[in-house]
């Protein structure tokens, strides 16, 4: 169950139309600009057409003039310079730019990238001693250093100058370096504070050698900017646009080798931010996670094609190893969550395990946070110490939350959506309790419900290659300028099939008003059974061009897909009711357990509510993890259409028979539940919406409940739907006799024949549901063989019999008879109890 929600609920269409006219663009593009906070002509023109003139003066950054003087002085004096970076893509690319520019200036410059596992992030004392022993006279930090107060002091004591360049938030005290270049400094007046570490390094490069010369490295700056997930607006947008263009026009050997190692089939001239974020950056990052980040740095700086090819191959192998370890960690974590985490009450997931790979737990935490819609802290334990990574959800500032837990950390740092920390193993349980206590006050149940946002709702007829060309003006896409996501509602579909080696994806064709649109839904293959029976789909995705056999077609790349919540689809779901009356459901209603005193108590404490629908609406608006049990088709139809009318159906999902084994469930309508396999662990409230067919059902349900709250909200008025169900489905002896006579009469010329099902129904005076059940019974009694044919025809082959048959010997008929008796008894009881 996912809630589809527009990014902006009430667009100002007058302002959007005005912007559309002034810019001479479509209303759709104008709306997308307006939703991004771009509301005037000048700002829109600058956004749609980024240019180098939009880059700010690098000397507007604090201490830039001091940094330039210090570095140029060191170069002129022949001092050895160390560029101290980080092991992620931002740190690697920052180091590559700074090293290249320093060497271009004639400096003796060496890199230092700390080891993730033995040294951790940032400047450290051991590294400074090593650099001192190597004769380094100046350290330039890139993508780190802003909190290195003690380390900078040590460097000065050893006679080493330090220039800090960083983009992370500042602590209360700045390091006493020769220069501290950071747009987040409290005294900074720089117009754009959202540069990545590589953006700050690039600006320093511009100050050192000029923009024209620094443009040789803007491709590397683009890699780091996209990989660090900084907002792709302002200067970042300019850097990435021109960086992508440089990659297309003059591809660096290392980037080309990495592209080829990733197995990308498109020509590199097609590169975009998605390629960087999901193909190139993970491979560069893998070096720092699995082996040594120096491989990624060497790859970007090498001028040797053979060397870059070999390095790219190594990085691809590192990435494959990382993926394998990541899958294993995630599977282990899911098992731990199932066993130890109560997702109904815990707003945070805190997991720790000996042997987890410290370089991979951050990625795993991010995927688990996306899966469970809660902040996740993953901790790799070793000898009583834990090194952790945390990832958040959009509604929570994780850094500010963890600040309140600071006393449990040995070391800690991060930002709103991610954090890293060290913690003693003995303090983990206390951290878990404290964090959940904080979040129980900060987050509401709605905050952990999965929202899928979309930019605009469109129809297939609105989509064309020309519309795609116009939307491309919004590129490059990334954080704060996401690729537009469009909702197509209640679309019919055809040719749905599972694709991919493990059938992980869906391929289908959407259609509206006779217009088709190809659609690929990656990682949605597990929804095939749920979706293939639907009449219509709601799909959220982005638009692009797909080339196949030289032919280009517009394609929707679906991020999410669900059955549409419209009358046609709901009616189709309701019509499946009789096909889902299972043996397990019947058994739950006829196998008597316990005694009636419990029924007296539970019905006495949960009286029939005259306003049960209003109660239900108020309840689900205030609570999640609700399981609503429905037993009859009539009440199912009433419930679904009522919830749709009151706009509450979008926070529900619907199933027959089994609630499944989903770890995260919010609100579920379950029809004809098989109690023997029912897993109530994900639920807080169990709501019996209509009358079951026996007291046995309530007794078995109560036996399943542990700490859930049971709500019984049915009454006498709903009994009519149970009666109607039995009338439509349950065969009497008279029904069976009438059907058999009709079958024998039709066989008077031949024991094998085809006949319209409607003729048998009419001749026997029964319903279609009784016909199929009756034929099943006769087949099990070896009185006939049958098969349903197309066009409403039935093939019948009557078999000879030599002895009298007792219908009660058949399990189906016996169960029907017992169910009717059980309901008759319970019907009397309910009427007496409530009247």
From TrEMBL:
Residues 80-225 form the DDH domain. InterPro entries: DDH_dom, DHH_sf, DHHA1_dom, RecJ, RecJ_OB, SSDNA_exonuclease_RecJ. GO terms for biological process: DNA recombination; DNA repair. One of its GO terms (molecular function) is 5'-3' exonuclease activity. Signal peptide: none annotated. Pfam families: DHH (PF01368), DHHA1 (PF02272), RecJ_OB (PF17768). Residues 349-440 form the DHHA1 domain. Residues 454-558 form the RecJ OB domain. SUPFAM superfamilies: DHH phosphoesterases (SSF64182). Keywords: Exonuclease, Hydrolase, Nuclease. NCBIfam families: recJ. Belongs to the RecJ family. PANTHER family: SINGLE-STRANDED-DNA-SPECIFIC EXONUCLEASE RECJ. This is Single-stranded-DNA-specific exonuclease RecJ. The lineage of its organism: Bacteria, Bacillati, Bacillota, Clostridia, Thermoanaerobacterales.
């Amino acid at each position: 169950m996912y809630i589809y929600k527009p990014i902006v609920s009430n667009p100002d269409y007058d302002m959007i139309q005005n912007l559309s006219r002034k810019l001479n663009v479509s209303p759709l593009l104008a709306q997308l600009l307006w939703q991004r906070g771009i509301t005037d002509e000048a700002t829109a023109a600058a956004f749609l057409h980024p240019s180098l003139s939009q880059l700010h003066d690098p000397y507007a950054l604090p201490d830039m003039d001091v940094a330039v003087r210090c570095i140029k002085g060191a170069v002129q004096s022949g001092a050895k310079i160390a560029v101290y970076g980080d092991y992620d893509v931002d740190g690697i690319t920052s180091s590559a730019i700074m090293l290249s520019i320093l060497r271009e200036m004639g400096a003796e410059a060496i890199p230092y990238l700390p080891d993730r596992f033995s040294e951790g992030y940032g400047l450290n004392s051991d590294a400074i001693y090593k650099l001192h022993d190597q004769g380094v006279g100046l350290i330039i930090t890139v993508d780190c250093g802003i909190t290195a107060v003690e380390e900078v002091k040590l460097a000065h004591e050893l006679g080493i100058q330090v220039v800090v360049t960083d983009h992370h938030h500042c602590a209360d005290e700045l390091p006493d370096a020769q220069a501290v270049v950071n747009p987040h400094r409290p005294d900074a007046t720089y117009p754009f504070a959202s540069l990545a570490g590589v953006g700050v390094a690039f600006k320093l490069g511009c100050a050192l050698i000029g923009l024209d010369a620094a443009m040789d490295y803007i491709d590397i700056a683009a890699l780091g900017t996209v990989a660090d997930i900084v907002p792709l607006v302002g200067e970042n947008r300019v850097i990435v646009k021109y960086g992508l263009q440089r990659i297309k026009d003059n591809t660096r050997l290392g980037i080309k080798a990495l592209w080829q190692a990733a197995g990308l089939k498109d020509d590199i001239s097609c590169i975009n931010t998605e390629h960087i974020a999901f193909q190139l950056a993970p491979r560069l990052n893998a070096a720092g996670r699995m082996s040594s980040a120096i491989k990624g740095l060497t790859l970007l700086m090498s001028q040797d094609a053979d060397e870059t090819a070999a390095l790219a191959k190594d990085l691809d192998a590192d990435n494959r190893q990382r993926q394998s370890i990541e899958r294993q960690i995630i599977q282990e974590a899911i098992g731990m969550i199932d066993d130890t985490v109560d997702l109904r009450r815990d707003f945070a997931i805190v997991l720790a395990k000996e042997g987890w790979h410290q370089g991979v737990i951050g990625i795993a935490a991010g995927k688990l946070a996306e899966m469970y819609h809660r902040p996740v802290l993953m901790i790799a334990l070793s000898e009583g110490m834990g090194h952790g990574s945390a990832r958040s959800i959009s509604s929570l500032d994780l850094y500010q939350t963890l600040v309140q837990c600071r006393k449990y950390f040995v070391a800690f740092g991060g930002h709103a959506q991610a954090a890293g920390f060290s913690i003693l193993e003995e303090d983990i349980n206390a951290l878990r309790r404290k964090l959940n206590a904080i979040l129980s006050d900060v987050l509401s149940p709605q905050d952990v419900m999965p929202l899928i946002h979309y930019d605009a709702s469109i129809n297939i007829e609105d989509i064309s290659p020309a519309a795609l060309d116009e939307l491309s003006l919004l590129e490059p896409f990334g954080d704060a300028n996401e690729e537009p996501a469009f909702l197509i509602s209640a679309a019919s579909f055809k040719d749905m099939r599972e694709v991919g080696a493990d059938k992980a994806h869906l391929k289908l064709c959407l259609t509206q008003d006779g217009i088709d649109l190809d659609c690929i839904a990656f990682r949605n293959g597990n929804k095939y059974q749920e979706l293939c029976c639907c009449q219509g789909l709601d799909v959220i995705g982005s638009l692009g061009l797909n080339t196949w056999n030289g032919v280009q077609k517009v394609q929707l790349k679906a991020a999410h897909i669900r059955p549409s919540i419209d009358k046609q689809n709901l009616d189709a779901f309701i019509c499946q009711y009789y096909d889902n009356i299972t043996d397990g459901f019947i058994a739950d209603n006829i196998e008597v357990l316990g005694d009636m005193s419990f029924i007296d108590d539970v019905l006495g404490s949960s009286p029939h509510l005259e306003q049960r629908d209003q109660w239900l609406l108020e309840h689900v608006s205030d609570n999640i993890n609700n399981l609503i049990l429905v037993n009859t088709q009539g009440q199912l139809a009433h419930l679904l259409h009522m919830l749709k009318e009151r706009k509450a159906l979008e926070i529900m999902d619907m199933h027959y028979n089994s609630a499944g084994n989903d770890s995260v469930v919010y609100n579920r309508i379950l029809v004809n539940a098989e109690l023997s396999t029912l897993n109530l662990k994900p639920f807080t409230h169990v709501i019996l919406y209509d009358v079951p067919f026996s007291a046995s059902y309530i007794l078995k349900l109560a036996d399943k409940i542990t700490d859930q709250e049971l709500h019984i909200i049915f009454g006498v008025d709903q009994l009519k739907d149970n009666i109607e169900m039995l009338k439509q489905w349950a065969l009497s002896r008279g029904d069976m006799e009438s059907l058999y006579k009709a079958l024998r009469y039709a066989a008077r010329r031949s024991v094998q024949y085809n006949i319209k099902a409607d003729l048998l129904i009419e001749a026997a005076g029964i319903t279609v549901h009784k016909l199929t059940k009756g034929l099943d019974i006769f087949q099990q009694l070896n009185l006939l063989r049958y098969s349903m044919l197309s066009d409403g025809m039935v093939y019948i082959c009557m078999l000879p019999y030599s002895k009298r048959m007792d219908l009660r010997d058949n399990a189906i008929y016996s169960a029907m008879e017992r169910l009717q008796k059980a309901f008759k008894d319970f019907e009397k009881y309910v009427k007496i109890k409530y009247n």
